[in-house]
Amino acid sequence: MNQEEQLRVHGKNAIDALSPIVKWKYDSFQNVMLAEFSVDKEEQVLISLQQVFPDSWDAKSIRKAPAKVKHYAGPFAKLAKKQKLLAANLNNQTRIMAAWWPWGHGATVSVRLFLTNTEPYVEKPSLLHKLRNFFA
């Protein structure tokens, strides 16, 4: 299954929920499903998106997000002002996440559905744990 097919399968709930409002296309540059729309649809799209992806982070809160969120999101975890990262089912290895990207000119917003990092998340030992092992 190619990248676009995987996105359509794993992102089906989000694609179906938003299809009455936005038009989706595959963006081969970033390997994402992309929807671009005017800000007059912003509230309606965000509410629908949050039904599928109830967990979200912004540029400030992503710093304190669990490490596995950043691991799964990869480069999409680097958020600028007004951008959001949305996810669901983080207790399992989630296969898809969404990026909310308002454009700089303020008239357009885009949503990108992307496949998550497939490498298993391995929690890194804390500094305290490392020190205990060092002195053991």
Strand residues, percent = 25-35%
Biggest sheet, in brief? Answer: 6 strands, antiparallel
What is the count of DSSP helices, taking H or I runs of 4+ residues? 5
Main-sheet strand order equals 1-2-6-5-4-3
Concise structural overview:
31% of the residues lie in helices and 25% in strands.
Topology, please?
Blueprint: H1 3-10, H2 12-18, E1 24-27, E2 32-38, H3 42-52, E3 55-58, H4 67-73, E4 84-87, E5 96-102, E6 108-115, H5 127-135
Antiparallel strand pairs: 1-2, 2-6, 3-4, 4-5, 5-6
Describe the protein's architecture and organization.
- The protein has 136 residues and is an alpha+beta fold.
- The chain has five helices and six strands, in the order ααββαβαβββα.
- Strands 1-2-6-5-4-3 form a six-stranded antiparallel β-sheet, sandwiched between helices.
- Strand 1 (24-27) and strand 2 (32-38) form a beta hairpin.
- The termini are far apart.
- The mean pLDDT is 90.
Keywords, separated by commas or semicolons:
136 residues, alpha+beta
